Amino acid sequence: MEGVGSYAMRHGAADRKGCVLRAACCVRGIPGPFTQHAARSRSQYHPRMTSSPRVAFQGAPGAFGEEAVLRWRADAQPEPRGTFAAVLDAVVHGEADAAVLPVENRIAGLVAEARAALGERATLLRVVGEVTQPIALCLLALPGATTATVRVVRSHPVALAQCGAFLRAHPDLVAEPWWDTAGAARDVARAGDPAVGALASRLAAERWGLVVLAAEVQDLADNWTRFVVVTRRAERADASDAASGEILPGAPGAGG
Ligand SMILES: O=C(O)C(=O)C[C@]1(C(=O)O)C=C[C@@H](O)C=C1
């Protein structure tokens, strides 16, 4: 099993100063400038599409991606997918009108896997906006479980990387990378094993019938993940949206 530390090393997560530096890095492969106008308008920007758009996110119901979908458009129909590639392919193939994709977390840094998936489809997809989603991670387990019964804690590797101090303070807990935060919660509920917990949101606890054993265990209280919103290039709106059209959070303001 790959440790959180090595995952973080491979995927660009490191200390907080490094995170700030990386926030100034431009991700290559996605064309287009990042303008000040775009920065101001991005949170208001909605591509022209039908009401109740289908918006894909990575994870199970209760994932932060689902929260990001509804933060972006309260009337959206969230569409869960297993991987970042599947999220984007849902848009490419017309199964979803848009997708949200995590590209940067305040603690863990750039989400390399998601950015790579986006870069591979750069000619087909367009970044049309972004959503900053607050991220509070909790230790979840079955009702009746306690911190004494839980021995293994599962979560998305990017989420595990956000809880380094908590995991170091609990050396008896074995961190197990899982495909998704809410997916880990769902799988804990299904397995019915009081020795297994998940690091996920309160929403995931409610969704999957788990209890919160420890709240807000991420390294920084004011934690967030930035998600970009992407649509198919063919579905570009009109010229008035041009300045908002091509944004990647973490890109410099200089239009690089
Ligand atoms: O697992 C989730 O809930 C996700 O939405 C994925 C993801 C990520 O891949 O960065 C998104 C936000 C959180 O920072 C942790 C994990």
From TrEMBL:
It catalyses: prephenate + H(+) = 3-phenylpyruvate + CO2 + H2O. CDD domains: PBP2_Ct-PDT_like (cd13631). The keyword Metal-binding does not apply. Keywords: Amino-acid biosynthesis, Aromatic amino acid biosynthesis, Lyase, Phenylalanine biosynthesis. One of its GO terms (molecular function) is prephenate dehydratase activity. Transmembrane segments: none annotated. GO terms for biological process: L-phenylalanine biosynthetic process. Residues 54-232 form the Prephenate dehydratase domain. SUPFAM superfamilies: Periplasmic binding protein-like II. Gene3D superfamilies: Periplasmic binding protein-like II (3.40.190.10). Its EC number is 4.2.1.51. Signal peptide: none annotated. This is prephenate dehydratase.
